[in-house]
């Protein structure tokens, strides 16, 4: 299939492009390179551009007959979204509407959307299934939920079929070590701990030990990037085959919660195999962090036939560590 991957030079998008390329699809990447990297998009044909540029979108859709579109090009920093909501609503909502409208005009009816656990807000129960109420507590989560709602209306009005995939904590790297995560600034737990081990930062700070969890640190559901991507590929195939239609939403996680302390311990064991260690410091709570976020992904397994291959935390960490060693030019 010929597919458009918007945001295909970013962390999740680039792994998606690589996986689709390995499956034999033809990929056009649209990315403004604001947070992505040209080298990461190398498994597709890169068009540097922005979703705000409607003329560019028209040209692109006139030039290529896309079977489907996947959209990864969002701003995704929760803290920044609180301070700069306009940036989040403009890019994540208004610009996404540009994309949906050009799809409708060109009769492209299959859309896969990166959504987030942040659409659920403070959980009422865990594991979180699709029936859980969606009441985001920050503009980032709100901007993603707006698109989820818009997609329902576009399905009814225009027959645009879509799947929203709500990620819990995406992590890990290409198991073959060719690409991986490189955010700047990096805010995510696993790469930060690994940077503390490689020497690219001096320590990892634990954001609070007074949560209502077994060891007092926050619990998250860490999902390997390859597994996340395989769910997208299955979702697209289900739409193309006509097995699924309308506007659907699935939660993606392993259903396993690990505390910040357990992740640090697991990283310490992995890096110790190579003779590395790291320093841990104590910090205050980070605003807006729920104590526990764990996914119930039963529906994705049942409806899409999704089966995670790398649910094991040490395996996730080993893949991310191999990539970090490359970035840090060690080992
Ligand atoms: N943490 C630390 N120290 C750090 C960084 C993180 O203790 O230096 C903790 C956080 O407080 C949190 C856990 O590690 O408890 C995981 O934090 P991440 O920043 O890696 O991930 P989040 O769970 O905050 O964020 C993820 C996605 C967001 C999404 C959010 C939903 O990355 O896009 O889940 O709440 F919005």
Structure, explained:
This protein is α/β, with parallel strands linked by helices and 331 residues long. It folds into two domains: 2-171 and 223-252, 3-Layer(aba) Sandwich (Rossmann fold), CATH 3.40.50; 189-220 and 255-295 and 309-328, UDP-galactose 4-epimerase, domain 1 (Alpha-Beta Complex). Helices cover 40% and strands 17% of the residues. It is built from ten helices and 13 strands. The protein has helices at residues 11-22, 54-63, 78-83, 85-105, 139-158, 189-198, 225-241, 260-272, 298-304, 313-328; strands at 2-6, 26-31, 45-48, 68-71, 110-116, 161-167, 169-171, 204-207, 219-220, 222-224, 247-252, 258-259, 280-283. The strands form four sheets. Strands 3-2-1-4-5-6-11 form a seven-stranded parallel sheet, with helices on both faces. It has a two-stranded parallel ribbon with strand order 7-10. Strands 8-13 form a two-stranded parallel sheet. Helix 1 links the parallel strand 1 (2-6) and strand 2 (26-31). Helix 2 (54-63) packs parallel to helix 4. The protein is globular. The model has no long low-confidence stretch (mean pLDDT 97). The site of uridine-5'-diphosphate-4-deoxy-4-fluoro-alpha-D-galactose has 21 residues, from helix 6 and strand 8. This is UDP-glucose 4-epimerase. Belongs to the NAD(P)-dependent epimerase/dehydratase family.
């Amino acid at each position: 299939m010929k597919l458009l991957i918007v945001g295909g030079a970013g962390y999740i998008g680039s792994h998606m492009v690589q996986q689709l390329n390995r499956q034999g699809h033809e990929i056009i990447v649209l990315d403004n390179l604001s947070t992505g990297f040209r080298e990461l998009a190398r498994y597709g044909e890169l068009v540097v551009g922005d979703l705000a540029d409607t003329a560019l979108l028209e040209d692109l859709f006139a030039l290529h007959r896309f079977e489907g579109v996947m959209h990864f090009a969002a701003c995704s920093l929760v803290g920044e979204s609180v301070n700069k909501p306009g940036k989040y609503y403009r890019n994540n909502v208004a610009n996404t509407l540009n994309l949906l409208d050009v799809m409708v005009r060109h009769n492209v009816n299959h859309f896969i959307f990166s959504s987030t656990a942040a659409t659920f807000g403070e959980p009422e129960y865990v594991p979180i299934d699709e029936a859980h109420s969606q009441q985001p507590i920050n503009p980032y989560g709100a901007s993603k939920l707006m698109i989820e709602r818009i997609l329902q209306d576009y399905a009814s009005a225009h027959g645009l079929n879509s799947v929203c995939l709500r990620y819990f904590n995406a992590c890990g790297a290409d198991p073959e070590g060719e690409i991986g995560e490189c955010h700047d600034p990096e805010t995510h737990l696993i790469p930060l701990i690994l940077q503390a081990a490689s020497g690219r930062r001096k320590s990892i700070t634990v954001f609070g030990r007074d949560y209502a969890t077994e060891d007092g640190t926050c619990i998250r559901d860490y999902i390997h990037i390859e597994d996340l991507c395989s769910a997208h590929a299955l979702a697209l195939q289900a739409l193309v085959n006509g097995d699924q239609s309308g506007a659907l939403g699935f939660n993606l996680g392993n259903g396993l919660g690990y505390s910040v302390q357990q992740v640090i311990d697991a990283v310490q064991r992995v890096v110790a195999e190579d003779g590395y260690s790291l320093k841990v410091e104590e910090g205050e709570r980070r605003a807006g962090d729920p104590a526990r976020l764990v996914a119930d992904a039963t529906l994705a397994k049942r409806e899409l036939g999704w089966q995670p291959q790398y649910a094991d935390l040490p395996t996730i960490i080993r893949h991310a560590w191999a990539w970090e060693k490359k970035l840090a030019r060690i080992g």
